[in-house]
Design goal:
There is one protein chain. This protein is of the alpha/beta class and 458 residues long. Helix content is 44%, strand content 14%. Strands 1, 4, 5, 6, 7, 8, 9, 10, 11 and 12 form a ten-stranded mixed β-sheet that branches. Strands 2-3 form a two-stranded antiparallel ribbon. The longest helix has 47 residues. The radius of gyration is 51 Å and the shape is rod-shaped.
C-alpha cells in the first residue's frame, strides 16, 4: 500500500519512529488486518500512476480524477469541505440595554402604543368624555398613560386621569388589552436582558450559505485544492508559492486562518476538509458556516488488479460498519469533539423578533377592535335612549300646557249642560218688540215653532 506525496493533518512523517503516522496510515493498518496483508510505505510523487504500473505498489489511496486502465475501490474516507468564518466576541456596550428586542420590534411596540392611544381617544369621544376640538392636548396625556400602562406604572388603574379614566366597559376592555401587552413585553424583555448584559456578544462575518459563498473569496491551504472549490466560490486564494515547504501543512493552514481573521484581508472564508480539526484549535475566533458543506471527491483506492479492488472494497465495507473505524477517524480528526458551549440548546442572547410576538399583537388589536365595537354599540344605544327621552319629555310638556290653560267648564260638555238645564232644554226666543208693518202678526210668529239652539257660554 502507498500514499501520495500530499501530507498534512491526514498523515505526516515521524522522524523518531521513522515512519508515517496519522489517520491514513491507521486506516490502512485496519484494512491490512482485514485482508491479512502487510503495509509498506512507498513515496509516490506527482506521477502517481507509474509505481502502480511498475508494480512497486499494489494499491494507492488517493483523491483525484479517474483514469482509464485502473480499478477504483469504495471510498475509504469522505473529503468534505466546510467553511470557517471569522468570529469576534464583543462585550456589552451602552446600547446593549435595547438589544433584547430587535429594532423592528421596538418600532412595532411604538406604533402599537400610538394606535392604542388613538383607540382610547376614539372610545372617549364616542362616550362624550373627550372632544378633540375642545381639548386636543388631552391626547398627549392619554399617550403618557398608555406608555405608563405598558411599563407597568398603573397597577390598579385607579390613578388614571382625564379621558383615560373612563369607566365604561369598552374603556376597561381596552385597558385590559394594554395590560396584557405590558405583561408579555416586560416579562420577555426582563428575561432576555440579563443575557445581553452579562454574556459576551459574538459577531460572525462571512458567507453562511452556498449562495453567499458564490460571491465571496475563499482560501485553501494548497494550490491543488483550488480546482475543487472554484465552482463554488467567487474567488480562490492560497498561500504564496515558495513561502512554505511541501510538508509544512500546518504553516499553510495557519496562513488561511490568519487571512480570515484579518479585517483588511480580502478573504471571507477558509474552505478545508479539516474544518473540525482547525476549528477546535480556534474556538474563540472561528465558527463553522452552517450552510457551507460539499464533497467534490472521496478518497478511494486505486489499483491495477480487479481482485485487489474487490477484496479491498469488501474490507472497507466491513470496516465502516464497525466501531474501530470511527475511533480512528475521531482520534485524528476529532470528529465528535466540539467547542465549549456548542451543545447549548438555547441561545440566551438571541434577539426577540417581531415574528415571535405576532400572536401578542394579534390579540391586542383584536381586543381593541372589540372595544371599539362595544363603544359604538353603547353610543348608538345612548342616542336611541336620548331620542326616546326627548320624545317623552315633549309629550309631558304638551300635556302640562294643556292642563295649566284656563278652560270653560261648559264647553264641549253635553252631559253637564243636560244636568244644568234638563235634557232637551231649549231657549225660546221672545216676541219681537219691533214696530212697523207686520206687527199684528208678531204674536203668531212668536208662537210658531222656531229653531232651537243649545246654550253656549263664551
Amino acid at each position: 500500500m502507498a500514499m501520495n506525496s500530499q501530507q498534512g493533518a491526514h498523515y505526516a512523517y515521524d522522524a523518531a519512529q521513522e515512519k508515517y503516522v496519522g489517520a491514513y496510515p491507521d486506516l490502512m493498518d485496519l484494512i491490512a488486518q482485514e485482508l491479512d496483508v502487510d503495509t509498506v510505505d512507498v513515496y509516490v510523487g506527482p506521477l502517481w500512476w507509474k509505481p502502480l504500473r511498475r508494480g512497486e505498489a499494489d494499491i494507492l489511496f488517493f483523491m483525484g480524477p479517474m483514469w482509464d486502465g485502473f480499478y477504483y475501490t469504495s471510498p475509504i474516507n469522505s473529503m468534505t469541505f466546510h467553511g470557517l468564518l471569522k468570529a469576534k466576541s464583543r462585550n456589552a456596550e451602552y446600547w446593549s440595554l435595547f438589544d433584547p428586542f430587535h429594532w423592528r420590534l421596538w418600532v412595532a411596540i411604538c406604533v402599537t402604543v400610538i394606535l392604542g392611544t388613538v383607540v382610547a381617544g376614539l372610545i372617549a369621544y364616542l362616550e362624550r368624555a373627550w372632544d378633540p376640538r375642545e381639548d386636543p392636548l388631552e391626547f398627549g396625556a392619554m399617550l403618557y398613560h398608555s406608555v405608563t400602562l405598558l411599563l407597568g406604572g398603573h397597577r390598579r388603574g385607579d390613578d388614571l386621569s382625564g379621558a383615560m379614566a373612563t369607566s365604561s366597559g369598552a374603556a376597561r376592555l381596552h385597558r385590559l388589552g394594554l395590560l396584557f401587552l405590558a405583561l408579555i413585553m416586560t416579562s420577555s424583555f426582563t428575561a432576555n436582558l440579563a443575557a445581553f448584559l452579562t454574556n459576551p456578544r459574538r459577531v460572525v462575518s462571512g458567507p453562511g450559505t452556498l449562495d453567499e459563498l458564490s460571491a465571496a473569496t475563499a482560501c485553501v491551504n494548497d494550490w491543488w485544492l483550488s480546482s475543487y472549490v472554484t465552482n463554488f466560490a467567487g474567488g480562490v486564494v492560497w498561500p504564496p508559492d515558495g513561502a512554505y515547504e511541501l510538508d509544512d501543512y500546518a504553516g499553510r493552514t495557519q496562513w488561511c486562518v490568519d487571512a480570515v481573521k484579518d479585517d483588511d484581508s480580502e478573504v471571507d472564508v477558509f474552505l478545508t476538509f479539516d474544518a473540525q480539526f482547525v476549528l477546535l484549535e480556534h474556538c474563540d475566533s472561528l465558527v463553522k458556516a452552517p450552510g457551507i458543506e460539499f464533497e467534490p471527491t472521496p478518497v478511494y483506492g486505486i489499483t491495477h488488479s480487479y481482485d485487489i479492488m474487490r477484496n479491498v472494497s469488501q474490507a472497507i465495507y466491513r470496516l465502516r460498519s464497525d466501531r474501530p473505524y470511527y475511533d480512528v477517524v475521531n482520534a485524528h480528526y476529532r470528529t465528535y469533539d466540539m467547542c465549549p458551549g456548542a451543545m447549548d440548546t438555547e441561545d440566551s442572547s438571541e434577539q426577540i423578533s417581531v415574528r415571535s410576538m405576532e400572536s401578542v399583537f394579534l390579540i391586542f388589536f383584536a381586543n381593541a377592535a372589540v372595544a371599539i365595537g362595544l363603544a359604538l354599540f353603547d353610543a348608538r344605544r345612548r342616542r336611541r335612549d336620548a331620542k326616546t327621552e326627548a320624545r317623552e319629555a315633549a309629550l309631558e310638556a304638551a300635556a302640562a300646557r294643556e292642563t295649566d290653560a284656563p278652560r270653560n267648564p261648559l264647553r264641549g260638555d253635553s252631559r253637564r249642560l243636560a244636568h244644568m238645564f234638563g235634557n232637551g232644554a231649549r231657549l225660546r226666543l221672545s216676541q219681537s218688540r219691533g214696530r212697523g208693518r207686520g206687527a199684528p202678526d208678531a204674536p203668531r210668529r212668536a208662537l210658531a215653532p222656531r229653531r232651537s239652539a243649545e246654550l253656549a257660554l263664551v
